[in-house]
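To illustrate this point, we now present one chain and its tokenised fold:
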Amino acid sequence: MLAKLSKQFRTFAKNECENSSPLYEHLANKIADDEELLKLATFIPQGQPVPNLLLAGVQYLLSSSKGDLVHFYPSLTASPKAINEVFPVFKTFVLSHSEELKTLFQEKLVQTNEIRRCSYLYPMMTEIYERHKKPLALLEIGASAGLQLGMDQYNYCYNQQHHINNSNNAFVLSSENRGQPLPASISNSPVVCKRVGIDLNPIDMHNEEELRWLQALIWPEHQERRLLLNQALPILKELDLQLIKGDAIKLIKKISSDINEDAMLVVYHTHVANQIPMELRLELIEQLKEISIERPLYHCYNNLFDMQLHQDFIDQGEIESIRIMERPDGHARWFKWSNQK
């Protein structure tokens, strides 16, 4: 068990933190060699990404703490101390707060709401709207606080030169497209008539304590992600979002049946399906096929059966692959757009 966890932390350090979070890369590699901390990590429920939940739990506790560890986190101090001195302080903090962390492990989920992922979802939505000329009903699985449900309201900048302005506010999502040219449809914002998010534990953006957890899920060095979250909140609070607590696979048919048939249903999820057992992933596909007997729909997703980004059209139980894109950056700093097959 501990050997498996150790490998998870090393993989996390190498595949996710390298060139992204020096602090988490260092801590994850150190935790991988520490039996006491690995034993604490065994209290994290199955299905949750262990390194993410442990590190988010620590940052969450730190955000209301005056402990020495605060001085190593760029998110909590303007001049962080050297990383090579952090681990003993980190371990002391974790072990002295082990009971609080165990409680958090049972109460919280890794539900990073990475708003920048809208950068590659938005072009898909504009293209769908242009093709069908029907208002879109957005249905997000694993919606967290629902930040991506406002994607038509955001401004975008691609490759530091292609600006898309959908609102008068200063909020801009920037991303680099390393693939084929984006569709011309991105110049026209789609009409969205419904915004529904399903999550096992939706985050209420009006609740300060829940927002603190959302902040804790953002890695310490990622100041821009933190800023984008704070800038997006006022926009989202003006929208009619419907966040539903529950299991999407059980609820999706009922929710879909309540959506006006004049709308084009778009079901999407990013970096969520890897937390779903394989038999339930297959069940989700079956549910979507059944819905498509009554109404056609789009399914946009990654991490379901591979790391790639997919856009499928489902009608009468038949799945048509519209596009497959190479695995994008986890925080959507870049992606590789692929035009229709």
